[in-house]
Amino acid sequence: MYGENGHLLRAELSSLLRQHRIQLRIGGPGTHTVPVTTTEEERTQIGEQVRRYRQSALVWCLQATIAVAPRAESRLSPTATNPFRLPPAQHGGLASLHKALDHAVRVSTARLPGMAELTSQHDLPLVEHWRQVARAAALGEHDFMAGLGHGRLDDAQLHTMIGDVAATVRALVVLDQRYATIPGWEGLHRADRLGWAALACALDASLDPPDYSIDMRGWRPKTKVIPGAGKPGLLGVLQAEHNLTVRMQAFPSAMNLRLVVDSQRLLSGGLATRVQKIEPALHGAWRDREQTYNDLQRELRDIGGTVGVGGLAVAEGANAWNRLKALPPDAQLDPRIVHSFTNLFAKLDERIADVVEEGMQRKAYSVRVKVPGTVTNIGQAITRVQERFVPPAQADHSAIVGLVRDRLRPPPEPPTASPGAARSRAELHTAIVHQPERRAGGKDGVGI
Fold first, then answer.
1. Which of 195, 194, 203 is nearest to 75 (CA)?
2. Rounded CA gap, 18 and 178, in Å?
3. Is the model's pLDDT at 76 over the cut of 90?
């Protein structure tokens, strides 16, 4: 997720920016009280490894400018007067930063770190911080195709990302100057241009308040089924409901969808009865959910279709209900487990609503209607009414679609920022301008 990877990147850069006397930290000379523990060749190898880690951070910054470039405009750009003409060539701080980053990446002789370097812990704390920077940058590359860039962010979120990239570049420029005394160190080419372009982007992005809800976007690991036998007590019910939510990622047939809906009707009512005294608010909400699924089950009686699977989801729904029935009436309910059902119910409700709408849209589900006409009596005691299944476009299916949209689908939650989003960025900005304390006697203790 962008928030986790960005937080790790900023935290490690902040730690590096507060470290001075780089030669001493890699075992080189610098003071008569600390012995030299590494040779010049070893320090050269350390510098090369740090540059490989830095290259990963530079590539992440470059990819970020590419991801936001199609829609991001400078706050100072004039408004286009003719909407039918193509916009002029991109200009401003973002374009300059992109060109400077592209040049710095291409000119650098450092290659990207391999998997072994990214996953192997280093003995030196300074190099370990750089490894974490590269690791966060490598993981952050997955975010651009999973919720960031390419028209998926609004204007405020775009400029928040631009501000994050600008701060990262500024930190790398400061560190590049501080590491200049490492044997064989290769500095950033035209670092002054890179630094000024990053500063221009940072100032441009700060003209409006940031939107830290971007931290909730990005790549997330795939949710998996919890294997093994059922857990004891209410935890086993939660396990089956979790597995049902995962299994519902596969599109179910109409019959299996009805069975899943019926399991949720029973489960909601059973849980509401058990939490009536300890959680009155959940009791009312789950009674409403029970009624919603009762109405949805009634509407699904006229829905047919053999396209899809869903047998595993039906089995998990049956497991959840059977395990709940098997609980003793006086069983103790852990409040943490009880409240965990709320999040699972919201995810499953949204998925079922998507399934119903998708099935109607792509004609995987059909609607049963009565066919008017003359029925020939063939000697049966009861004459059956002729029925047939027709595509949704030929029948009135507004009732079921309205039910899933208005009552089943959870209301959209306003985007929220991750905890510590503003603090993480403020700490990096503070570290960029950090200066070491002066020693007693007026001598500066910076050292490089």
1. 203
2. 11
3. no
- pLDDT for 387: 74
Q: What angle do CA 405, 286, 298 make, to 5 degrees?
A: 55
CA distance 50 to 44: 10
- Cα-based angle 101, 107, 110 (whole degrees, multiple of 5): 100
In whole angstroms, give the CA distance from residue 437 to residue 448. 14
Between 239 and 85, residue with greater pLDDT: 239
pLDDT in tens, 149-169: 666 788 888 889 999 999 999
pLDDT in tens, 207-245: 888 888 888 888 888 889 999 888 999 999 999 999 999
The answer to pTM > 0.90 is no
What is the average pLDDT across 3-26?
91
Question: What is the layout of strands, in order, in the sheet containing 387-390?
Answer: 303-304, 366-370, 387-390
The pLDDT of residue 378: 61
CA distances from 101 to 55, 104, 196 (A): 11, 5, 12
Write a three-state SS string for the chain.
CHHHHHHHHHHHHHHHHCCCCHHHHCCCCCCCCCCCCCCHHHHHHHHHHHHHHHHHHHHHHHHHHHHHCCCCCCCCCCCCCCCCCCCCCCCCHHHHHHHHHHHHHHHCCCCCCCHHHHHCCCCCHHHHHHHHHHHHHHHHHHHHHCCCCCCCCCHHHHHHHHHHHHHHHHHHHHHHHHCCCCCCCCCCCCHHHHHHHHHHHHHHHCCCCCCHHHHHCCCCCCCCCCCCCCCCCHHHHHHHHHHHHHHCCCCECHHHHHHHHHHHHHHHHHHHHHCCCCCHHHHHHHHHHHHHHHHHHHHHHHEECCCCECHHHHHHHHHHHHHHHHCCCCCCCCHHHHHHHHHHHHHHHHHHHHHHHHHHHCCCCEEEEECCCCCCCCCCCCCCCCEEEECHHHCCCHHHHHHHHHHHCCCCCCCCCCCCHHHHHHHHHHHHCCCCCCCCCCCCCCCC
Q: What is the pLDDT of residue 101?
A: 95
* pLDDT recorded at residue 446: 40
CA distance 263 to 194: 60
Reported as a pLDDT band with limits 50, 70 and 90, residue 79 is low
